[in-house]
Design goal:
This protein is mostly helical. The chain is built from 15 helices and 2 strands.
Length: 338
Amino acid sequence: MSNPSSSDTNGSVATESSPPPLDDLSVDRSVPTTLDAIRTPVEDDLDAFQTYFREAMRADHTLLDKITQYVLWQKGKRIRPLLVLLSAKACAGQASDSTHRAAALVELLHTATLVHDDVVDDAEKRRGVFSINALWKNKIGVLMGDFLLSRGLLLSLDHDDYTILHTLSDAVRRMSEGELLQIEKSRLLDIDEETYFRIISDKTASLISACTKSGAVSVSEDEGLIERMHQFGETLGLAFQIRDDLFDFSAQESGKPIGIDLQEKKMTLPLIVALRDASRSDRKRILKLVDEDDKSHDELRTIATFVRERGGIEYARSPSDARASLVGLTEFAIKRDR
């Protein structure tokens, strides 16, 4: 990354350049591809983020403290705080205290939504360990999620981080709307590709884009730059969710068992595409299987085979305008003149 050029007293970027032509892009073998390597530029910032996050999780109540310590013990990959920190550094060359608080707010909100999701889904495990509702029942799970949300709100309000708080609050609203729309469409089994992208934009890309936008907001007042980082996060979030949906049809590619989404009657992109050009009889046969409440392993295999043979998986994996834009934006972010 080039050294930061001069900026005004507010830290906003003074100049910018156009992204390189997409057909001129080549793979840079020095680009980090592991999480440890990706974290390297912001190792110190991750420590600062952890300080804010742990402080926000502190509780005097014995039971609450026990649960928060359990949450902290799980750690996780911290992908979303990492996006905040890297976005800030890509925009201004360094993160700020506001960036560290934004990263902590993101993790608090994300953790709260996971706790609530486990209650809604009646899930007993998360990332291979028991969920909070499995250990302390649903009522405490809901209250713990509420506690995390409130701590995130207070962290921002206490430091007047209003723009960042608005950005992330809007993402939580979109996530809720996306979940409700998916539930509605899962009952009707009438989802099309346009609706699918609306759902994953709200469910997944909203928080990813809020991360990249918050990182930019924390170090810059350049509205053009902030919007580009927001759009970058949106595209990254879409790509992330499509890739995750593909795992549902191939157990060999992940630790996720085949058919988790299918068991919940979720209509993802590979299935939508496979059904689109299917005959009326095939469509009726597959939708009948999808609509069953408790699918057998053989039935899940039947659906997965149909999706694969009908080109649904290939379609979801194929290069697209979104992927090309993602590559272009990534290159632009790291190669532009400041």
